## 1
Amino acid sequence: MLRFLNAGESHGPALTAIVEGYPSNVKIKTDRINKELARRQKGYGRGGRMKIEKDVVEILSGVRFGITLGSPITLMVRNKDWENWTDIMAIEGDPMNKKQILEPRPGHADLTGGIKYGFYDLRNVLERASARETTTRVAVGALCKILLEDIGIKIGSYVLSIGEKKIDKSEIESISYEDRFNNAENSELRLPILGKDEEFKEYIDKAKEDGESLGGIFEVYALNVPVGLGSYSQWDTRLDGKIAQAIMSIQAIKGVEIGEGFNLAYLPGSQAHDEIFYSKERGFYRKTNRVGGLEGGMTNGEPIIARAAMKPIPTLMRHKSLQSVNVITKEPFDAAKERSDITAVPAAAVVAESMLAFVLAREILEKFGSDNWIQIKERIEKYRQEVLNY
Ligand SMILES: Cc1cc2nc3c(=O)[nH]c(=O)nc-3n(C[C@H](O)[C@H](O)[C@H](O)COP(=O)(O)O)c2cc1C
């Protein structure tokens, strides 16, 4: 089974991931992984950290002469900022000599993590709970995208809203997913239509002036996915559940919908389902895709569509107030800080692409076998023909 573990603190020496179950004979270029890492770092409204760090992957195992070996792949991304943190993040020494973080920030893991793991210095919590961790998720996602692209599966994302500023569904209905993606790649906010950036940037600038932060909604999709990934047979084999879990696991994501999601609840049955059609060229198909490509916990061959809601960044500017309590003195304090990101919705969308890529790559390998990618690809090709002839 394809799986990965990642490790590393936000200001530690490096972030790492070990990927196991990735097949042999896949051509890997570090440039492709670095391209994805750069996409995660973009987006209007990000803070200073993104300017310090230009993430670059180093592959430490599992690849030789540009070809995967079928053995575990170790990925490492160094934290460039580490040189300024060797003291505070030292492996050995006395923590009492260092400035501790005793003030838990609302909206973060700080307080509960401190209580749970038994620390008063909340840096021990926030270093790992930070979304910096998603860097290696994106590196692993890039490996998965390489597999998926080789069998024609395309994954992408775009942003639909930042705070109350929205792109209306009717504005993108007639635009293909590829075009929405291409537009998003040329937008500082990953917007699926061109010419809207300035409006959104002004809105974000206003939030910054007010000392506010903003959340938003993005959509992530996968095209050309074979029919029948996932299964209805058990609760934990249903692919819609796996996709929702993977996206929900991203920091600050508070809601995930598949297809029309919550809106389906408002429709009568005759308008909520996707009717089935057949043609010799296409085989079975639907003209609508309200269920986002998943029925009975399985892919039905239509695009997979998931939408996610991100809460506003919890760190606010100094002149806005969020009340909290010091863990030692029990005195109240104002948790607002000098600065962090104002919004990170475009970056979260890129992380969600990576999680979707990982879940789909794992399902592909589960259905078509592991070990040697050349053989796996042949099986996928044969299966696709069988689906057409069904
Ligand atoms: C890409 C990305 C960047 C983020 N940047 C920040 C940030 O700069 N400052 C901050 O306070 N929270 C930031 N967050 C949000 C926190 O990581 C998140 O709110 C926190 O982990 C608690 O959310 P949870 O309860 O959903 O885990 C970011 C999240 C993501 C996905």
Note: The longest helix spans residues 345-368.
## 2
Amino acid sequence: MERITWDQYFMAQSHLLALRSTCTRLAVGATIVRDKRIIAGGYNGSIAGGAHCTDEGCYVIDGHCVRTIHAEMNAILQCAKFGVPTEGAEMYVTHFPCLHCCKAIIQSGIRAVYYAQDYKNHPYALELFAQAGVRLVQVPLKTDVFAFLASGGGEA
Ligand SMILES: [Zn+2]
Ligand SMILES: [Zn+2]
């Protein structure tokens, strides 16, 4: 297998984080990167110490699970909690961010969003990202990344 690209490496990290999700509706992972280094990561789940959707079911209002904090928010809040600047950083996320996360991403000074899958891509989110000059790039995760890991890293 060829050496993994940085884009694939960070996107794989976001997909690994998604495996930690506690919401049964959708598993999302997000990684914040600066100068090719991971500075924070998050997945969608309950607030620390809160009940998990996986244990008690989702708390659905108007078609959305309100129990969880989104992966993008969790990653940004991790930076807030530990005093890590997000200005000029980049985010890798498994799914196209919702409108709330879009606004938080822009406001936190993140300059680029790489997402693997389309997910209800909100036209207003697209408009806001464009307006703010945030680079938006779809980077699908290559499945051979995990196939390679599952193989134990050796020759197939
Ligand atoms: Zn849920
Ligand atoms: Zn969101």
Note: The chain has one domain: 10-141.
